Amino acid sequence: MTDLLWLIPALPLAGFLILLVTEGRLPKLAVALVGAGSIGLAALTTFVVGSGFLDAGSEPYTQTLWVWMDIAGFSPNIALYLDGLSLVMLGVITGVGFLIHLYATGYMAVEEGYSRFFAYMNLFVFAMVVLVLGDNLLVLYLGWEGVGLCSYLLIGFFHTDAENGYAARKAFVVTRVGDTAMALGLFLLFRELGTLEIQAVLEGARVAWPAGSTLCTAVALLLLGGAVGKSAQLPLQTWLPDAMAGPTPVSALIHAATMVTAGVYLIARMHDLFLLSPTAQLAVAVVGLATLFISAFAALTQTDLKRILAYSTMSQIGYMFLALGVGAWSAAIFHLMTHAFFKALLFLSAGSVISAIHHEQDVMKMGGLWRRLPVPFWSMVVGSAALAALPLTSGFYSKDIILLTSWDFASGGPWFWGVASAAAFVTALYSARMIFLVFFGTMKTEPEDRSGPNMWGPLVVLALLAVGGGWFGLAPLADVLPDGGLNSHEHSTSLVWITAAIPILGVVLGILIFGSKQIKVDGLLRTRLAETLRRFWFGGWGFDTFYDQVLVRPFVLLAEVNKNDVVDLAFRGTAALARSINRMTARTQTGRLRWYASSMAFGLAVVLFVVLEVL
Amino acid sequence: MNLLALILLMLAGGGIAWVSERFNPKAPQWVALFVLLLAGFWVYGLWVSGDGPIYAETKFAWIPRFGISVYLSLDGLSLMLVALTLFLGVVAIASSWTEIRERTGFFQFNLIWTLAGLVGVFAALDLFLFFLFWEVMLIPMYFLIAIWGHENRGYAAMKFFLFTQASGLLMLLAIVALVYQNYATSGVLTFDYQALLGAEIDPDIAFWIMLGFFIAFVVKLPGVPFHTWLPDAHTQAPTAGSVILAGVMLKTGAYGLIRFVVPLFPEAALDFRWPAMVLGAVSVIYGGYMAFSQSDFKRLVAYSSVSHMGFVLLGVFAWNQLALQGSIVQMLAHGFSSAALFMLAGALQERLHTREMSDMGGLWVRAPRMGVITLFFVVASLGMPGLGTFVGEFLVLLGAFQVDVTVTVAAAIGIVFAAVYSLSLMQRSFQGPPNTNVETMADFGLREMSVMLVMALALVWLGIFPQAVLEMAAPSLASMGVGAP
Predict the structure, then answer these.
(1) What is the ipTM of this complex?
(2) For chain A, first and last CA: distance in Å?
(3) Mind listing the pLDDT tens digit for each residue in B420-443?
(4) Fewer CB within 10 Å: N-end or C-end of chain A?
(5) Taking a contact as any Cβ pair under 8 Å apart, which residues of chain B between 225 and 264 contact chain A?
(6) Please, which residues 431-470 of chain B have a Cβ atom closer than 8 Å to chain A?
(7) Global pTM?
(8) Chain B partners within 8 Å of A138 (Cβ)
C-alpha cells in the first residue's frame, strides 16, 4: 500500500488547484468539502500507507517521481521518502490538520474569502507534507519555503489591515534569514559530500567526518540557523507573536502544530550531523533552553490570549530543542506530537472563546465564561493541564522524559534540568493564570456561542488526544533515531518525584494567586522593579526593540537617503559638466564682429607667444 | 532552413506593419502578431525537427576582403533565447494592444525591428554581423522610448542611447582589436567566431580587449555601477518596450558574456574572475536594496532586474556547469517574471494613470485577479522553490560556492533582500486598506489573463521540470569546454 504515498501530497495540492481555478465561485459547502475533504482523504491515505508500512516491517520506502535536475553530479530527484519519523510527522500533519480544517469550516464561515482561505490552507498542507517526505534536502527545502509562503499568506489573510501585512512580511523575512543560512549549509554539504540526498548525506558524513570536525560543525550550525528561524527560537523568534494576526485556525495549524516544529524535524532528520558535532548539539540545547526560559516569562505577562499561546508555543518548542540537544531525540518528536494535540486544542478553544465574545482577545476583558462556554472551557482546561504537564496528560509523559534526560546531559546536565524545571513551573503558573482570567471571576462580556458540531467535534477529539496521546508509544521512531525510541533511563526516585511535582506546585500557586486570591500579589506587582520586569517580559525581553533600532531603522533610513541612487551621480555629474561647458562656450557666440575680431587677435597673440617661447 | 530568411522575414514584416497603418490604425498590430507567430512557428519547427547540438546554421561569405561572412547559427542556448525573444514579442504586442493609439505603424515597425535585431544577436557567430545586429536592436528601442514613452521620455531615451552607444563603441573597438591581433599573429583577417576562438593574443592585450567586451556587456546586463540607465529607461518606456528590454534585451549582455567574453579570452577571464564575481554579488545586493527604496512600481521592478541579473554575472564567472546552467535558467526565468511584472505595471498605469505606489494600496479588493497574478510573480521574483527563478539562483549559488565562499555568502544575502522588496511591492500596491482615490478598477480580462497564465505556467515548468532546458543547454556549454559533450 506504500505506493500510494504520492497521493498524500497530491490530494491537498488538488484541493488547492480546484479552489484556485474556481476563483471563489463555488458555494460554501463545496468549498468546505474540497478544502477539508482533501485533507481528510490525505489523512485516510496516511493511515492506509502507514499500516502498510508498519506491516512490511517499517522498512524505509523511497518513491521517485521524476528527475528534478541532473547536472555534473548534482542530481536531486523529486522523490518521497517514508520512514518512521516521516510517518509520525505525516500523522500529525494530516490528522491534526484535518481536525483544524474541519473546525475552520465553521469558524471561517462568517468571514470574507472563504475559498481563498481553504486554498491557502490546502497549499500549506501540501508544502508541509513535501517538507517531511522529501528524500533529499532540496525537496525538503521546497516544502520548507512553501510552508513559509503559506504562513505569510495566512498571517496576512485579512489583507486590508496594514498591520496584518506587516506581521506577515516580518514572519517571512525573519524566517528567510534562517533559510538563507540553511541554503548555505546545503551548498557546503554538496561541496563536501557531493550529494543532497538525506540518507546519503548522513552516511557520507559518518564516513568522511571525524567526530568534532569543523566542517560538520559548520554545516550543523547553518542548518540550526534554518531551524531557529522556522521554529521561532532565539535569536530569530520575534516573528511568532506577531504572526497571531492570522485567523485562529491558522495559528493552530501553522504556528503551533506543524510548521513551527519543522526545525525540530530538520534537526532530528539530520541527527547524525549533530551527533558528530558536540558543539552544534550543545548549541541546540542552549538555544532551546534560553528560548523556553525567556518565553515562559513572556507568556506570564501577556494580556492577549493568542499571544500567551504564541509565547507558550515558543517555549514548548524550546523544550523540543533542548531534548534534541541533550540527545533525547525520540522524546523531542514525542513532545512535538503531544504538543500538536494540546496546543491545537488550546488555540481552537481560544478561537471559540474569541469568536463568542465578538473577537475580543484581551484576557483582562474576559472572565466568568466557564458556564456559558462549556466545551471551550473544558477543552482549554484539558489543554492547559497537558501544557503544564500535569501527571496523566500527554504533555506530562513527553516533557518528563525531556527533563529527566537533560539531568544526564554531559555538559552541565543539572543546570539544564534546573532552568527547564523552573520554566516548567512558570508554564504551570501561566496556564493557571490563563484559565482563571478567561473563565472565572466576573463576566465582562456576554458570550454568544454559535459553534456547531463541526467546531466542537474537533475540540472533543483533540481533548481526548491531549489526554491520551501520551500512550502512543511511537515505536516506528526506534529505527530512525539514534536513541532507539523512548527509553526510560534510571533516575533516583527523588529526582523523578521532584520533576513530576514541579508543575503541580506551579498550578497550586496559580490557583492561590489567580483563583482563590489567597495570595495577594498586587502590592508586589506595584513595586518599580516588578513593573520594569513586567514591561520587559511583556515586550518579549526587548528583542523587537533591539532589532528595530539596530537593523530595521538604519536599513529603511539608508534606503530613503539613497533613493535616487548615489551611483548615478557620476553619470549625472558628467552630463552636468558637459552642459556647463556647453553653456560657457555658447556664451562666446555673441554675433558681434568686434568681439570675434578681438578674441581672434588675442588668440593669435597667445599662439605666437607660445610658439616663440618654445622655439 | 535559412536563418537569414527568418530575420529578413521579420525586417520585411516590420516594414509591412508600418505601411499597413494607412489602411487601418489597428492593422499594424495584427500584421506584427502574424509576423511574429510565423517566425515563432519557424523556430518551433527548427526546435522539433533539429536534434542538436546545432539546430540550424547559415553561412556564406559577405565581404570576403575583410573576412566578414553572414554566419548565423542556432545551438541549444541560442535557440532558447530566440524562442524567448519571439514569445515575449507576442506578449509585448498583446500587452500594448490597447495602450498605443498614435503612430501605431511606426510603433510596430520599431518593435519588430528590435526583435529582429535580438534574434540576430543571439544567432550571429560573425563578430561584425553581431555588432550590426547589436545596433539594429538598439536604435528602434530608442525610438520606442523616445516617442511612446511616459512623461520624462526624452531624458530616459537619451540616457539609454548614450549608455548603449558608448558601450557599443567600446565593443566595436574590442572587436577590431581582437580581429587585428588575430591577423597579426595568424595572417588571416576574419571576423569568424570559431576562427577567433583559437586566436593567440598577447596576454596583456587580451586582458584589455576582454575588458572592452566585458564592460559593453555588463552595461547591457546591467551590472553595478553601469546600471543607472535601466531604471530610467524602464520607467519611461511603454509597456511593450519594458517587456522587451527586461525580458530579452538584458539577456544579450549575459549571452555575450557566456558566448564571447569567457570562450574568447579564457585566461584573461580567469584572471578577472574575482572582480567580476564581486560585481555580480554587489549587483545582487545593491539592486535589491535600491528596489526596496523605490516608490514607483516600475522603478522597483527595474532595480529588481539589476539584482536578478547579478546572479547571472556571478554564475557566468564562476564558470562551472552548475553555475552556468543556473545562469541560463535564471535568464529564461527572469525573462518571464520581469516581463509579467512590467505588464502588470503597464496595466496599472493604463487603469490608474500612475505608477506611484502611494496612489495604490488595497487594489486586491478592486481587482482580485490582478492581485493573484501579481502575487504569483512577486513570489517568483523572491525565488520560491518550484518556480524557475529558484532553480536559476540556487544553481548559480551552488556553483559559485565551489569557487568562492565569501562572494557566494554575500550574494546569498540578496535572497533576504529579494523577500523584502518583493513583499513590499505586493503590500504597497495590492494589500492594505483600499485607496479611496481608486473607486473602481477593471480586472484582467481574457486577453490579459491568458498571457499571464502562459507566463506563469512557463515559470512553473522551469521550476519543476528544468531538466529539458538543462539538457538543451548542455551541448552549448560543452562546446565552450564546460562539462562533457
Answers:
(1) 0.91
(2) 104
(3) 999 999 998 888 888 877 778 888
(4) C
(5) 225, 227-228, 231
(6) 431-434, 464-467, 470
(7) 0.91
(8) 385, 394
